[in-house]
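#struct-help
A.M.: can someone run this one for me? Single chain, 90 residues.
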Amino acid sequence: MPRYIDADALLKRSSNNALLDAELCGWNDFVDIIGDAPTLDLVPRPVICGECKYAKKYQKVYLMCLNPDKQCGFVNNDFYCANGKRKEQK
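D.P.: on it. Structure tokens below:
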């Protein structure tokens, strides 16, 4: 299982001596890799009705929720619920 770290906290926690030692040992690239690593968004974004596989257009204007677990009826495009499932990418 991957472990996600706070790279800023790691670099801040490292003393200047530790960073100097890393540079002397040839770890300068390693320090740069940590600093340049992409940030992960670990909080899932809710599925809005306009992106949900259960939402079907009704008369080209309205969205109707057809989720069997949640009988919402007509919904707004930007509404969301806990039972939404994102449409498959084409």
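A.M.: thanks! Residues 44-90 form one domain.
D.P.: also worth noting: The chain is about 30% helix and 10% strand.
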